[in-house]
Every structure is written in C-alpha cells, then in structure tokens.
Fold:
Amino acid sequence: MKILVINCGSSSLKYQLIDSDKEEVLAKGICERIKIDGVLKHTTSGKEKKVIEAPMPNHNEAVRLVVEQLLDKENGAIESLSEIDAVGHRVVHGGEKFASSVIIDDEVYAAIEECNDLAPLHNLANLIGIEACRKLMPGVPNIAVFDTAFHQTMPEKAYIYGIPYKYYEDYKIRRYGFHGTSHSFVSNRTIELLGKPAEDTKVIVCHLGGGASICAVKGGKSIDTSMGLTPLEGIVMGTRSGSIDPAIIEYIAGKEDKSIAEIMNILNKESGVYGISGRTSDFRDIDEGIKEGDKRSKIAFDVFCYQAAKIIGGYVAAMNGVDAISFTAGIGENDGEVRKNICEYLGYLGITIDSEKNKVRGEEKLISTDDSKVRVYVVPTNEELKIARETVELLK
Ligand code: AMP
Structure:
C-alpha cells in the first residue's frame, strides 16, 4: 500500500509517501513559510532534490503543491492519485477521547475540534491539513494518529496533578504526555531487541530532541511520562523551560511588568538550553561551546543531563526496576556525551556504557557493556513509519 503521511504545523507541512509493504520512503518533503510566502523542498527517492518557491497562502495550497510534486511526470513518485491508499495524519492532542488511532469521519473531526482548547496552535493546524486532504483527495481515507494516545494507559496517580480535583473534572486538566508515536515505536523495538514477552518488560525511552520527553513503559504500556498537560513540562529542552516552580511566573510578572502570555512565550521560546547558555538551543553548538571553555554551555549541558537522569531514576522506582533504557531523537541518537553523562548518574543500577559502542550516531545499537545489569540502546525513532503502520492496521 502507498500511504501519504502528513504532519502539519502552524506554518509548515512535512510529508512522506511510504510504501508500507516494503517500509520504504518513496518521496518526502516539507512546505515551509505557509501563510508567509512559501517554499517546498521535495525529494523523490533516487531523484534530485527540488526546491520550489511558490505562494502558499494556506494549507490547502500547500497540499495541492505536494500532490502536484508527487504526480510530476519527470520528478514524481506516482502516476495517479488513485495510487494513494490512505493519508495518515499526525494529530498532537487527542485529549481523553482518543486512546488509539482512528479513521476520520465527521464525528471524529468534531471530537478532535473539541480537543483544540488543549493545544490550540497544533490541533488547528492538524485539522486544516486533514480538511485540505479531504478536499483534494476525495474518497481517500484519512487516519488520525495522536501524540497523546500512547499515554492514555497511564494510571491516575501518574496523571492527576496536585491541584483541586474540580479542575480535572471541569476542564480535564491532567498529564497527557506527548511524543507518543515515538515512545511507542522505540519501546516496541526495544522490547523486540530484549527478546522477552512484552508483559515481562520494563523499558525507559528517552526522546531527546528539540523537544524532549522521557517515558516509562511497563509491559509494553506507557505508565508515566515527563510532558504534561502541554509539552512545556518535564526536562529542560531546546528553548522550553521544562518544569519550574509555578510561582516564578508571578515573580517575573511583578518584576518586569509582563503579562502571562509574554511569560509563557519566554518559557516556550527563550528558555531551556537556549536560555541558560544564552547562545544556542542546538546541542552541537553546546558541545562546541564546552570545548571552547564556555561556562554557560557547560551549565546548560549539566542541567539537561542531570534532569534527565533524575526522571529516569524516578521511573526505575515507578516500575520497581528496568530492563532497558533507549535513547532516541536528534540528541539521543547522535550525542554520545549526553548519553554517557546521563548513564554515569545511573551507575548504582549496574549500568555501564561501552565507550567505543557509544560513538554511534543515528543507528540502532546496544551501547552498554556485556556485563551491564541494564541494557542501554540507541534506537532511531521513525514517527512517519509508525503513522504509516497504524494507518495500514486501521485500513485492515
Ligand atoms: P529533533 O527534534 O529530534 O529533530 O532533534 C533536533 C536536535 O537534535 C537539534 O536541535 C540538536 O540539539 C540535536 N542534534 C542533532 N544532530 C546532532 C548531533 N550530531 N550531535 C548533537 N546533537 C544533535
């Protein structure tokens, strides 16, 4: 089957056309600067990359241009739209309504709309992408795969916050967790690598990228995760603060006469590794900064690793043990220094890293030593493939 995977952001649209039988990418690309001007970068497998500048006043036009590229006589990947069996959409927030992926009909569309309050920017963009595909590819089924769905197995004690219970009852304020597609993909693969029945496994997945979250997976199910009602909670990230004392918000507001909206913007876009280092949100530059003796790069690195290690330690307690820890996403897959530093805190668990194996970048590998009591892996994530697999499952 040929599955088109769409990941719509507020001003971008990433896509991959995947042959689900061979699990191969036939074409992929990204539309950027939607509603501003518009750039489409498209690559059909085995052909040259194309960069097209074309006005994209809305997501409809972006989807139309993507379809045009896929069908292009010289550079395309398919001859007719009828070759696309289904479209799988990444949807950020499924609230408590969606514990798994679904085929989108009018009722599901309305239910996703009801979750918009919880992630206004993201969900709205996702819905616009869904609408555009429905219009441009009538008759092709659309499937929603939610970032939050994998975490719907968390027990109450993991998702209820210590605030009046009525806020959960009235507004559904609770931990939802994100990166679910990635946590599910990487934990499944880790369980395969462990070679044990899923029910008997305890796995911790560290998705460390621009956004970062950690997930405790017991018996193949998410039982806790570090992001919360929104993706702002948890460990320090590229530009997001992660968890802080909530009283800081009022304190800054008073000192600098700022609104809550302004402070939320600071916490989302000017904090984290970027805010601490004062120079970059990118770990490649942080590693460079440390080599050059930059003090604040070192603080940012240390805070990031320390917070990750504390969450992992907490999840070992939550599961009363751990069989494997897997690192994934941009930093997790590529940055051996981060992996080494985090694992050093976990020496008490009998974890030891093989420094030669830990040089790996972007490839699946066991990086712990043979006598390590807990296995440590690098498992590259593949959210698009996971969305394609879920889409095929639902079509069956
Ligand atoms: P992601 O959100 O998964 O795409 O991850 C993006 C982040 O991964 C970047 O902002 C970098 O901090 C980090 N990253 C990517 N490549 C490397 C690398 N080779 N070494 C260290 N960090 C990297």
User: Anything to note?
Assistant: The chain has two domains: 2-146, 196-378.
